[in-house]
Specification:
Length: 365
């Protein structure tokens, strides 16, 4: 089989789904690999490096037309769909309900769509979990970007002129991104606290050296799949009071709170912002789904009440070499798990728990 991948929209996306490491592994499995010319330009990898390990560097349209399996980070454009052959297998990160027109065209063209952001949270799928691997990178990068914008030193320093107190970090949401943000802030010498509607997060936060802040008397708001549930009005009221007292003490706030399939919860309001210290930094990792902070804007840095609110889009792409390395391993782990060595083809078993979750085969309304 021929596996292929092309460059994405470079104004937004600088990650790749294939790296030299995984291309070697795919070739060892028996695949031929087609990639677009200049494929590694954002990863500091030249075409000759890819050719040396056996990849074919060809024109973009030829990759789409000649490959049996196409790897795409984002949903294909209508032009790209027009080039794909029937029965092509498309693997990537497509968010079907946000891209209904494109998904329906793919289904009508008999393209098999495997959308990996829909993977179930089970042990067997952990090594394929593209959302977790990229959230990890986003949590790390958010802290680094905040420290860059922050106009003070982060760690405590004992000097002859006196002591510099450490910066205080607060993390909203202790999922994968939040936990990595906590760990990174602690490594840099910050004092870290965090909150989450899932009380099970308390142990994880404290194991990383953070203080867990929670709404007194709250129930555990966690789905069976390990995600956060939407909270009720009473919880929101108590949370607001807690955050007013907490945010006024903070220097850097990392927002990561998301509810699957819904708009991000609006947690930091105007009153809370007005109470914060001037010069504080907020990084809203939820900005592309509406944002946790009232004034965050996708793709922009906004300043209100003397506070910088960072709303960078596609944060993992800002550290594309590491992000691509993890993504490509996720992809390899998935494909190798369904690769039939006898027939040298992919076995798409619709009764398998993983395939059942990610296989988009019905037209969306």
């Amino acid at each position: 089989m021929i596996i292929g991948s092309i460059l994405e929209d470079d104004s937004y996306e600088k990650r790749n789904l294939l790296t030299p490491e995984t291309i070697k592994k795919f070739i060892q499995l028996g695949f031929n690999v087609n990639i677009e010319n200049n494929f590694g330009r954002f990863l500091n990898i030249h075409d000759q490096d890819f050719k040396n390990i056996g990849a074919n560097c060809i024109e973009r349209n030829k990759v789409l037309k000649l490959s049996d399996i196409i790897l795409k980070i984002n949903c294909p454009t209508l032009d790209e769909i027009s080039i794909l052959r029937e029965n092509t297998i498309l693997i990537g990160n497509f968010f079907p309900h946000l891209n209904k027109e494109a998904i329906n065209k793919l289904i009508n063209k008999k393209v098999k769509i495997l959308s990996l952001e829909l993977l179930p949270r089970i042990t067997r799928a952990q090594s394929m979990d593209i959302l977790s691997s990229q959230a990890n990178i986003a949590g790390y990068k958010a802290v680094i970007d905040c420290v860059y914008e922050f106009n003070k030193a982060v760690p405590m320093m004992m000097t002859a002129a006196g002591t510099i107190t450490p910066a205080k970090f607060f993390v909203l949401g202790a999922g994968v991104a939040g936990l990595q943000a906590i760990a990174t802030a602690k490594r840099l010498g910050g004092v870290v606290s965090a909150t989450d509607v899932r009380l099970a997060s308390k142990e994880q936060v404290e194991s990383l050296g953070g203080k867990f802040v929670f709404v007194e008397g709250a129930q555990n708001l966690e789905t069976a799949g390990g995600y956060a549930k939407e909270v009720g009005e009473e919880y929101k009221r108590k949370q607001e009071e807690l955050l007013k007292k907490t945010l006024v003490l903070q220097d850097i706030v990392i927002c990561t709170a998301l509810v699957p399939g819904k708009k991000a919860p609006r947690i930091i309001n105007e009153e809370m912002l007005s109470l914060m210290k001037k010069g504080s930094i907020i990084f809203d990792l939820a900005v592309e789904q509406g944002g946790n902070c009232i004034y965050s804007e996708s793709g922009k840095i906004v300043e209100k009440f003397g506070i910088k609110i960072l709303g960078y889009k596609n944060v993992p792409s800002r550290i594309s070499e590491t992000a691509s390395s993890l993504l490509s391993r996720n992809i390899y782990n998935f494909i190798s798990s369904i690769f039939d060595k006898d027939t040298k083809s992919l076995k798409i078993d619709e009764n398998d728990e993983i395939i059942k979750s990610i296989y988009i085969k019905d037209v969306l309304n």
